[in-house]
């Protein structure tokens, strides 16, 4: 009993320390945003061209050069070679539909999108979050209008502490501001997982087993999972499954870019 009590006390102390750290990170992050707003003029995130105040954060020339995907599977956002105008799902989704009703990823994970996402995640180039978040906002009309909550893919608290921010949460900001959709905070990544990019597909799926947990109840009916890149879709499938288990009626996915399956 005493051992269990000591265990619980240690666990509670660790939890409250995590909350203190998360609070401090949130304060630092919002202070960073205020500072960035104050000192950085409005310029294109990709080429640096000065833009008028209030303009979209990507200039027209860079916007037209981005690797937009013409046609994609409506369930997993995989680019499709067909020129047909009919709504088509890829063979994998027809055989085994994913637990989410739709996935949209407007750009392919090639230059300069891959470089921008890496610069955002690993070199704190937060101006790319504003630019790529704007791309996500533009894609919202392609999704169902009844979405009532956003779930930025959670990072493990240790990785978030090291990085100083969660890029998926940063990407959500324009949608939160313009569409007024709230963010869910009840899902946590309970297991630190190695970087997905270094793993083969089957190892990625194993790597994600029980990586997430719902803490408390979720009132939302249609949740939109937001991420930077969809690669195998394993992360989104796991998150969608635990959201549905928690009583959410439907789940959609929105990411900046779609990488090809390996
Ligand atoms: Zn530009
Ligand atoms: Zn598909």
Summarize the structure in words.
With 262 residues, the chain is an alpha/beta fold. It has two domains: 1-39; 72-258, 3-Layer(aba) Sandwich (Rossmann fold). It is built from nine helices and seven strands; from the N terminus they run H-H-H-E-E-H-H-E-H-H-E-H-E-E-H-E. Strands 1, 2, 3, 6 and 7 form a five-stranded parallel beta sheet that branches. The chain has a two-stranded antiparallel ribbon with strand order 4-5. Helix 5 packs across helix 7 (167-179). The chain is globular, with a radius of gyration of 19 Å. The structure holds zinc ion (ZN) (2 copies). The site of one zinc ion (ZN) has 7 residues, from helix 2.
Taking all residues together, what is the mean pLDDT? 83
What small molecules does the structure contain?
Answer: zinc ion
| Beta-strand segment tally | 7
CATH topology of the largest domain: Rossmann fold
List segments where confidence is low: pLDDT < 50 over at least 5 consecutive residues. Answer: 1-15, 19-39
Radius of gyration: 19 Å
Report helical residue fraction. Answer: 40-55%
Largest sheet: 5 strands, parallel
Give the name of the CATH architecture of the largest domain. 3-Layer(aba) Sandwich
Order of helices and strands, N to C? HHHEEHHEHHEHEEHE
Number of domains: 2
Q: Helical region count?
A: 9
N-end to C-end Cα span: 50 Å
């Amino acid at each position: 009993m005493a051992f269990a009590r000591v265990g619980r006390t240690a666990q509670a102390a660790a939890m409250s320390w995590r909350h203190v750290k998360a609070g401090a990170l949130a304060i630092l992050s919002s202070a960073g945003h205020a500072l960035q707003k104050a000192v950085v003029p409005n310029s294109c995130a990709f080429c640096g061209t000065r833009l008028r105040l209030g303009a979209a954060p990507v200039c027209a020339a860079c916007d037209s050069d981005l690797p937009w995907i013409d046609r994609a599977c409506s369930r997993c956002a995989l680019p499709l070679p067909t020129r047909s105008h009919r709504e088509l799902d890829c063979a994998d989704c027809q055989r085994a539909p994913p637990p989410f009703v739709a996935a949209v990823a407007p750009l392919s994970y090639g230059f300069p999108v891959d470089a921008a996402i890496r610069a955002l995640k690993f070199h704190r180039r937060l101006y790319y979050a504003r630019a790529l978040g704007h791309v996500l906002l533009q894609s919202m009309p392609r999704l169902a209008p009844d979405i009532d909550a956003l779930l930025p893919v959670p990072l493990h608290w240790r990785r978030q502490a090291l990085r100083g921010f969660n890029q998926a949460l940063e990407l959500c900001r324009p949608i939160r501001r313009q569409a007024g959709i709230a963010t869910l905070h009840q899902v946590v990544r309970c297991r630190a997982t190695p970087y997905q990019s270094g793993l083969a597909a089957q190892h990625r799926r194993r790597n994600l087993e029980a990586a997430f947990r719902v803490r408390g109840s979720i009132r939302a009916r249609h949740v939109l999972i937001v991420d930077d890149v969809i690669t195998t879709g394993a992360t989104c499938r796991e998150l969608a499954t635990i959201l549905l288990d928690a009583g959410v009626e439907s789940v959609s996915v929105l990411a900046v870019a779609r990488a090809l399956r390996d």
